[in-house]
What does this fold into?
Amino acid sequence: MKILAIESSCDETAAAVVENGRRVLSSVVASQVEEHKLYGGVVPEIASRRHCEAINGTVKKALEDASIGFDGIDAIAVTYAPGLIGALLVGVNFAKGLSMSTGLPLIPVHHLRSHIASNYIAHPELEPPFLCLVVSGGHSHIVEVKNYTEMKIVGKTRDDAAGEAFDKAARTMGMPYPGGIHLDKLAESGNPLSFRLPRPRVGGAPYDFSFSGLKTAVINLIHNASQKGSELPAADLSASFRKAVVDSLTDNFLRAAEELGYKKLVLAGGVSANSLLRRRIAEECAKRSWECYYPPLELCGDNGAMVGSQAYYEYLSGNTATTSLNARATMSIEQ
Ligand code: KG4
Ligand code: ZN
It folds into this structure.
């Protein structure tokens, strides 16, 4: 089964053709990040406009790259939640139009479920059940993936998402948006023990995260130093901050795996590109003889291929939509 998949939930317009959930025949990503950089973050109104401009060409190129026409496509999939509502609406309406004009089934895909599915593309042997740490710009969840379409959130952030905390700390250090990757790179040359930063815990909810206090601690350190006319060593501060975030993610994830009895651990979402997080989870799993999976870097960020992968399994579970499908800014991964 060949699925044409469309993604427009944030600042990437993406389309892909994916066969049977695992084989990527084409994948095209048109990023708007250079424009949003000027404002230090994603401007929703600009994102919607750029999606409108890019979507036609992106979908056309995905079909061309796969050397396929609509006669070779079996279904149209689209990210419909969660995300920026104006941005999502562009992809959803485009997909609805395609479904209506071709008569092909329409498959709605949850954005975080598709991040998890990026692992199915990279690791043909990977099958649920497993425990997944889904860490992106907007979410930080520990999810029991019971089967391809049945998920249960066992831990989540009470405030900022991990990616958001990385981006805000990086921005205060003067790095361009999105700062997570820059902070990660700089941290490689710093000493993670230079600064003592908090490791927040959420009372009574051992798998939940809280990153806002950590983010504020770093921002205060920088502001206090600048008021005294001094500058903090950026590599050391980056390394200390990255370690604090990764300690928190890793501790809760491993604890959940131990207590819930999972020996197969998976990372997903933009922050799964973080080099320390990848190393730490791989090392900890190796120590315990557990299986460990994360997506290749090119599949960590938003893309259409992961949507096409998850869509296949949604279709097999009977999750299709009519053309009354609407976009939703928020929606639980469990639904
Ligand atoms: O999954 P994603 O593309 O967007 C959402 O669905 O929200 O994730 C983007 C997030 C941004 O916050 C970005 O800074 C972060 O992923 N990110 C990283 C790294 N690469 C991307 N954070 C830490 N280290 C990285 N190497
Ligand atoms: Zn994403």
Summary: The chain has a mean pLDDT of 97. Residues 10, 115, 136-138, 163, 166-167, 178, 180-181, 184, 269-271, 273-274, 301-302 surround KG4 (ligand 1) (CB under 6 Å). The chain has two domains: 2-116+299-316, 129-294. The radius of gyration is 20 Å.
